[in-house]
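Reproducibility note. Readers wishing to regenerate the assembly model reported in the main text can use the exact inputs given here. Chain order matters: entities are listed in the order in which they were concatenated for prediction.
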Amino acid sequence: MSEFEAYRGLFVAESRENHENMVNNLLSLEKGTDQNAIDEIFRSIHTLKGASASMGFADMERLCHAMEDIFQLIRSGSASMSQELGNLLLACSDLLEQMIDDVEGGGDTSSLNPDEQVSTLKQWFTDLGGGNTAQDQKSAAAHVPAAPAAETPAAPAAEESTDLPAYDIHITVASECLMKDVRAMIAIGNLEALGTIVSINPSKEAIDEGKFDGGLDLRIASEAGEEALKTAALGTEIAGVDIKPVVKQVKKAAPDGEKKPAGGAPAAADKNREIKNLRVDITQLDHIMNLVEDLVINRGRLKQIAEQHHIKEMDEAIAMVDRSVSDLQNLMMNIRMIPLNHIFNRLPRVVRDVAQYDSKEVEFIMEGGETELDRSVMDGLNDPLLHLIRNAVNHGIESPETRETAGKARKGLVRLNAHRDRDNVIIELIDDGAGINIEKVKRKGVEKGLVTQETADTMTTDQAVELLFQPGFSTADKITDISGRGVGLDVVRRSIEALKGTIRVETTPGKGSRFELLLPPTMAIVDVMIVRINGRRLAIPISSIVEVANFKRDATHQIGKGEAILLRDEVLQIFWLNDMIGVSKICDILIVVQYQKRKCCVPVDIVEGKQEVVVKPLSRFIGNTRGVSGVTILGDGDVVPVLDVNTMV
Amino acid sequence: MVKLLIVDDSVFMRTVIRDMVTKDPSIEVVGTASNGVDALEKILSLEPDLVTLDIEMPKMTGIQLLEELQKQRPRHRPKILMLSSLTSKDAEMTAQAIHLGADDFMLKPKDIPHVREIGDELVSKIKHLVTLKSAPVTHTLSSKQGPAERVVLIGSSAGGPPMLDTLLAEIPADLPAGVIVTQHMPTGFTAALAERFNRIASMPVKETENGDTVETGKILLSKAGVHTIVSGDIGTNNTRIGRIIHSNTPPLHAVRPAVDKTFESAAHVYGKNIVSVILSGMGNDAGAGAHTIKEAGGTSLLCDEKDCLVYGMARSAIQKNAVDKVLPLNKLAREIERLIRQMEEDTHV
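Running the prediction on these inputs yields the following structure tokens for the assembly.
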């Protein structure tokens, strides 16, 4: 049994992969026939079935089998997909997912009864023309005789022997035959071996007495099947056998029922889901990661000691350690990186469900799912992303009628795009819906007491949008099943910021909205520039620095409340970090930082140098401090805050 | 040492198979592959003795791989064991695979936690396969053709196919009798099995069809999914004719074809001119049939327990006191021949 348990994890991992693959291809089938998708689904369900059979999860196997049968028909081209069938198959795949969950939790899927789905699938199968082949197959001789009795539901009326199918048979013995009565008796004997003769004319006695002219009528009750009976009646010098089933609903026996052709060679799929990986418990990876982080800190200390004491011999050794640690660190990073598809893959289904629920028509496009993110970032991203997608369909996209009136295509467009921008990963969610109704937002804001009427009146669009992110704000007119579950955009923002990311919204009334999430690819180790202001150190991520320039105090301009400087024909806002670090008299170096296209600059006293550091999150009681993404410990034990440029610009 | 290459697109399945075979010290897994392309490369570079091959795979299916192997004819051609799942599609594909030169097939491991024998069956199959000669036999047609006057009936289930390899190869081609083999097997897979036996047996082998005549010098393998019933007829020149009927009556002992059905119906047609043999198998099919044969004057043989993976079917015959002789596997063919020749003499006297 323990050996069996060892397979459980593997089974769950692979089954999830196959389940996901199946669902996504089902969804892509909704857009139109795609042989490749059909092949993929077939292979996934085939593998799922095989694995569940191996594990002895009979219910799961049964469900997979029924689904596979349907797909066999579709694959061979003798049936096609429809919306209704798609819904059924998706519902079945939901149940499959529950079964996988159950297995993961230590169950054996027996708590989830698939009877209803299986019988619906079988009905479809029959309707689609699968007919007898499947029936035959279901009642197949079990390989192991001790197999569960439920395996053989197909044999018609097997138990009710009183109600056997009956046939009328007319046998004609060849006219040139010399011993017609003997031939008739052989035929009768052979038929008797297969069933019960109900009536016979002429009777056996009459035939025995020689009262036989070559024609024989009989009625037989038998389950052997028409073909079998016909063969039994046919024999030497039998000219013909006519056989007709008596009862209307007698199932026709067709042992050689239609067989489907192979359906061609599966097209070479461009996917590379080949698994050559070792699956490692993620907590182990986290542990290794912690060790690597410690190593990075200690490396910094070693360096510093060597510098302080001017130990030249140590330089080389430290350089080697340095390289190894860097390699190790990179490797660890890569190991922890997983493609966004991991969470993206579920989204088409979400969009579809929300759209269907709301009777909206939505085309969902995903791009850049191959972009990689650190696993820890990925984990925290799932829920906010799900929420945003639901919002986009639920609140963003208008009903088809409204869209038509507004002169738009009936089908709304939701586009999810992920790409790398320097060291960051940017996820955009764009919809071509109604956009955010700023007036409505302001009204709601006032209603909820978030702002006063006066403030609301003077608010810019951006400021109004900001209201959306306030706790307790929801613009949905009614609370639906789909979104508006009490969690608002404030929760989304908080989750994103907990990941050291930012969220930004742009909206154009009537044209749609664009949500942008900016995320660090990894949370742990970053390249920073160490600077000093007022004698205190500060770390600025290298990835956000575009320039280090000279700074003349008298070159600044006052713009409104802020200060700005003209640098290479660009007006850059100056951020004095006085609040944070205290006022410095020197400040003759300007660090220009950039977040996406926006730049600003920070005046500093000294640039100390570049270093790789481990960013540790601020502890919970300090909370989320905007402007600081965390702290790092340098080699000499100094605790230095890391500037969070994204929330600054 | 048997060098084994495991080919399956499911990592789960590869692991399960590997674990099953590595329990046996004489099998070494030299590699695994997740698709046909990869497998082809590894067959050429690793030169395994045997390959377990999946059918449904991305890039190149098992079938395509077999075609490719036929084309390329590598110097070291491994034995190929198809691992199929229980579907009509796979059954068809398996038959095609055997036709394309695969050496044997087996169902993918099912219900591992409850069925211990599956691992044993896989291991014994692998070991058995590598001992088989590669060149197919050429069939010399029996000099006495036509409807059989005597029959050899063989009933077999789990663990039976490797025994049938031996037995059918040893039964001489000129045996003056027809042979009917009833092997428990899921629907669809007997076509592949017949094709395979045809390469090994001395007589030609085919799957039964409704209406087939039982002929001397030919082996019929019961088609799975229906019962094989032997029905009697008398030819115009007063010859006895045994005809195969495929009956759809419900499974007996949870199996279809049931050995009992064939044994009993044949007993009514051939009476004392029957030699029946029960090989390895689970359950209690065959006991009642052997009893009927003995009653009708035929001879009932059993294979020795030590040669059988499972002895349930044989035991069912012993319990019914329906056994004439128990012999080791390698003595069975000679005894069958002796008995049949004896029957032939008796008829002519």
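We highlight two features of this model. The radius of gyration of chain A is 37 Å. The longest strand of chain A covers residues 412-421.
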